[in-house]
């Protein structure tokens, strides 16, 4: 650890010696000689008009800018009530400080001839509920992707698997100039678009199309990041092509070509590698291969996950903090490609669409240990397994906007998703009883293949009437789903501590599930006066499900149908909901109060068991939203909503999954919907004079009839898990982010803190067990960036989580993550990047302690004009840590797994950036603006 920091310091001092720098000072006053405090001083490079530095005068009118590389700059000064001032400045002959002495600004009534001054741009601003970053204020290395830019933004984190979080919440989508980019997959934009193309990054909660039209919030929100492109990229062809090969037969290739022109967009993507890098989300693959096993062992409606990125992901990326993310370990090869387009065929019709295809091959060699706690002791479950998955996916979508006139509009949003997966696994497992002796053992072989098809379409009609604020919107939703899966199971279980004979299972099974969804909604808004509106809404929805699971026991005579493990299930779930919202708008505030009434009905039939399920539910669903914009960049928001969380079809299906004979899972047709109260208080502020920012939120979630898990363990330590309604659950979350610049040190410093407390109930062998989960975390980030030559970042994060149980042993987890990242440019066309991560895991009981150092190093040589070519030699996982570690816990268990992953490998690659001259990387820009993260 000490050697790493010494190396970083050595890199720091060596890089700062490469370029000679100077500074600028001066004093601002009015015509009477009185000082002008908090005047904006902006410095741009004459060569490319790029923003170099920004400062504010102090209370005596003095300003100072340091760390400038030699070049010619335009100094611009603005102050309210006075004419803008502009002057070209050059470095002094002998270096050092250029003292401009006193600069007197003239009153606005006087004209300043012959000077054109563009308005200053702050690195950040808050507009209503949108947080906007000026991308030019956050430097990235040449040929960097948008993901590298996002990592530098205050309050934004990027996990090792590419998951993006903004202000403590996971980002659902990333748009480009307000439009979808390859559907709703945020990773495609963040990992495949160049950071140099982005002008602004906007973070906000995107409302539904209906809510944006009516102005009345319907509670359907998505955390969204919008990438606003620079003007030059909106009428050009740009992108990059990368190809590389390495040791151990490693390869990687990526191509991203984009053609934008006055509203027309056409993008092509292609990628291939066997280095565990995903340029897209793989949620469909994970959900299809995990099946019900992903829900086993759940606690009181929560599981803790302390998964960190193994060497399979870039060691330079931040691993996910506690309770978040899921790093993909093992060995993965992926191929993918797609096209995205958008065009306005006329002033009335606009069409956009996308198609994306991918192939994944994923192999895992994993060892697992689970400690299970019982009222009278504990037992251990050990497993070693090999698994191979092959996945092929296709997804497509289109959005059609038709506006026949200024009063009417139609929007059609349709999507198609189809994927196939083949899975094979071999597992050896054994259970050690309370005496630490083998109680049972099992060997299982599973084969499964299947496919899933989903079609969805939503049609929205909107009409504005002559009276301002009077609107009508109607929507219709259609959905079709079909899933089929066939498998084989062979398992031998032996019970060493009982007289039971060995149990041999040989089975064939098939599953099919079909779903049909139809829905319609209507919303009408009526202005009561210029600032008061009333909205009436009604929605009707019906979903039909037909689920079948058939199991045959393979015997020497002939296959025998197993009715106990087979099921035929049909369900009809429908609800209707109606209500009203009252909205009041002021100059700086917005209030919406509403009340809805929902009536739900579930009718189901278990055909093989001749059982009929029929239930009705009625609920009132109140809501309240309050938003206030203070003078300056400050925004306060309070949001309270209620909703129902209906059980999924998998949770309702009364089928026993015995793919792991020692750990069974069974659905529950008697589940009731959970009633949820959700409240959030959110505040954010940015002070342009001090460049200090502060973001914070407080969430409270209260749930009745919470869906949790019941576990039953028999005398042979065979565990059966089933979802149940487990009473109340309360969760309280808080998060804060504070940052400020250290201008004298060309640095920025940021602090983050979080807290989470959850109370709930789980069941073990029929007995209730009240649980409480408490977590606190803190982080520190320091960035030093004197100019384009060096970017040094040091960060640390520590989290402590404690789980307390009414019966059972308490659990304690302490996880630490430290990182050092350095990017250094030297000899004009060379770049060095070093990423070091040090991960520490500690937990009790079990006394689990794990330390994982991760180190990546790369050397780049830039070629061609504007550095459009890059030859890169990189060594990933230099310390050869080829294991990925994962922890998770529930109400009565702790589980740890270790998966073999990529070891050390070297790769030589070449990247060519198309149209790099749109934003030259080799222009010296001097000191960047710094704000704390």
Account of the 3D structure:
This protein is mainly β. The protein folds into 2 domains: 2-104, Sandwich (Immunoglobulin-like), CATH 2.60.40; 283-918, Maltoporin, Chain A, CATH 2.40.170. The chain is 5% helix and 62% strand. The protein is built from 6 helices and 49 strands. The chain has a 26-stranded antiparallel β-barrel. The longest helix is centred in the N-terminal third of the chain and has 15 residues, at 2-16. Residues 1-19, 110-120, 291-327 and 920-933 have low confidence and may be disordered. Residues 419-449 are annotated as: Disordered. One of its GO terms (cellular component) is cell outer membrane. Keywords: Cell outer membrane, Membrane, Receptor, Signal. It holds the Pfam family CarboxypepD_reg. This is Outer membrane receptor protein involved in Fe transport.
């Amino acid at each position: 650890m000490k050697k790493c920091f010494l190396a970083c310091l050595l890199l720091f001092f060596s890089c700062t010696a490469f370029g000679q720098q100077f500074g600028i000072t001066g004093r601002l006053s009015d015509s009477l000689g009185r000082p002008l405090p908090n005047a904006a001083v902006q410095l741009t490079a004459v060569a490319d008009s790029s923003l170099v530095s920004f400062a504010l005068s102090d209370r005596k009118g003095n300003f100072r800018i340091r760390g400038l590389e030699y070049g010619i700059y335009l100094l611009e000064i603005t102050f309210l009530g006075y004419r803008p001032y502009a002057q070209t400045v050059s470095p002094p002959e002998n270096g050092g400080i250029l003292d401009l002495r006193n600069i007197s600004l003239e009153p606005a009534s006087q004209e300043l001839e012959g000077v054109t001054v563009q308005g200053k741009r702050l690195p950040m601003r808050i507009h209503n509920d949108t947080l906007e970053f000026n991308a030019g204020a956050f430097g990235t290395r040449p040929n960097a992707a948008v993901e590298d830019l996002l990592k530098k933004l205050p309050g934004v984190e990027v996990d090792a698997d590419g998951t993006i979080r903004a202000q403590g919440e996971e980002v659902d989508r990333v748009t480009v100039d307000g439009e979808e980019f390859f559907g709703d997959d945020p990773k495609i934009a963040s990992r495949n678009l160049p950071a140099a193309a982005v002008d602004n990054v906007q973070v906000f909660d995107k409302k539904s199309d209906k809510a944006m039209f009516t102005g009345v919030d319907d509670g359907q929100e998505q955390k969204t990041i919008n990438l606003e492109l620079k003007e030059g990229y909106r009428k050009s062809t740009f992108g990059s092509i990368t190809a590389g090969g390495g040791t151990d037969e490693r390869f990687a290739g990526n191509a991203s070509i984009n053609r934008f022109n006055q509203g027309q967009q056409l993008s092509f993507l292609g990628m291939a590698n066997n280095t565990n890098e995903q340029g897209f989300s793989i949620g469909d693959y994970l959900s299809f291969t995990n099946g019900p096993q992903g829900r086993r062992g759940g606690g009181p409606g929560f599981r803790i996950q302390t998964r960190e990125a193994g060497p399979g992901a870039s060691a330079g990326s931040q691993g996910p903090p506690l309770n978040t993310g899921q790093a993909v370990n093992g060995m993965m090869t992926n191929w993918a490609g797609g096209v995205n387009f958008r065009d306005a065929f006329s002033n009335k019709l606009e069409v956009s669409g996308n198609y994306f295809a991918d192939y994944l091959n994923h192999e895992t060699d994993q060892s697992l240990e689970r400690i299970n706690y019982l009222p009278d002791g504990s037992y251990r479950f050990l497993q070693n397994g090999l698994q191979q998955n092959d996945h092929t996916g296709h997804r497509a979508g289109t959005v059609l906007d038709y506006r026949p006139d200024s009063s009417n509009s139609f929007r059609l949003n349709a999507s198609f998703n189809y994927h196939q997966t083949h899975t094979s696994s071999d597992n050896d497992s054994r259970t050690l009883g309370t005496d630490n002796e083998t109680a049972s053992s099992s060997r299982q072989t599973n084969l499964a293949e299947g496919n899933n098809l989903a079609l969805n379409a939503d049609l929205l009609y909107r009409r504005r009437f002559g009276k301002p604020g009077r609107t009508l919107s109607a929507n219709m939703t259609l959905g079709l789903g079909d899933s089929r899966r066939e498998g084989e199971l062979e398992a031998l279980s032996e019970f060493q501590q009982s007289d039971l004979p060995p149990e041999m299972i040989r089975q064939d099974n098939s599953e099919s599930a079909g779903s049909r969804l139809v829905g319609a909604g209507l919303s009408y808004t009526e202005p009561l006066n210029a600032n008061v509106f009333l909205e009436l809404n009604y929605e009707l929805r019906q979903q039909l499900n037909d689920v079948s699971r058939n199991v045959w026991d393979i015997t020497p005579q002939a296959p025998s149908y197993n009715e106990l493990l087979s099921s035929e299930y049909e369900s009809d779930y429908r609800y209707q909901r109606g209500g009203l919202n009252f909205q009041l708008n002021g100059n700086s505030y917005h209030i919406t109060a509403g009340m809805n009434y929902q009536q739900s009905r579930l009718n189901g039939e278990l055909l093989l068991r001749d059982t009929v399920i029929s239930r009705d539910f009625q609920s009132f669903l109140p809501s309240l939203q309050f938003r206030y914009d203070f003078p300056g960049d400050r925004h306060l928001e309070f949001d309270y909503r209620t909703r129902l969380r209906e059980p999924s079809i998998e949770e309702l299906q009364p089928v026993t999954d015995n793919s792991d004979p020692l750990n069974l899972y069974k659905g529950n047709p008697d589940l009731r919907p959970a009633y949820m109260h959700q409240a959030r208080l959110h505040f954010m502020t940015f002070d342009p004079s001090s460049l200090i920012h502060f973001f914070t939120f407080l969430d409270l979630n209260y749930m009745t009839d919470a869906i949790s898990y019941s576990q039953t363990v028999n005398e042979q330590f065979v565990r059966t898990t089933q979802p149940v309604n487990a009473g109340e659950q309360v969760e309280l979350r808080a998060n804060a982010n504070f940052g400020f610049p250290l201008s004298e040190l060309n640095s920025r410093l940021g602090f983050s803190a979080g807290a989470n407390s959850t109370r709930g109930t789980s069941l073990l062998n029929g007995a209730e067990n009240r649980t409480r989960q408490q977590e606190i975390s803190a982080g520190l980030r320091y960035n030093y960036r004197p100019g384009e030559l060096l970017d040094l970042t040091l960060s640390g994060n520590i989290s402590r989580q404690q789980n307390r149980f009414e019966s059972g042993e308490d659990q304690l987890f302490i996880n630490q993550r430290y990182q050092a990242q350095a990017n250094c440019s030297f000899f004009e066309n060379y770049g060095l990047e070093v990423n070091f991560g040090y991960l520490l895991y500690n937990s009790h009981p079990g006394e689990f302690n794990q330390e994982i150092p991760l180190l990546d190093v790369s050397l780049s040589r830039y070629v061609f004009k504007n550095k459009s070519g890059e030859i890169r030699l990189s060594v990933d996982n230099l310390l050869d840590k080829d294991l990925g570690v994962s922890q998770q816990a529930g109400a009565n268990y702790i589980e740890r797994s270790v998966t073999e992953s990529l070891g050390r490998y070297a790769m030589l690659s070449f990247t060519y950036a198309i149209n790099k001259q749109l934003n030259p990387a080799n222009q010296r820009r001097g000191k960047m603006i710094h704000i704390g993260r």
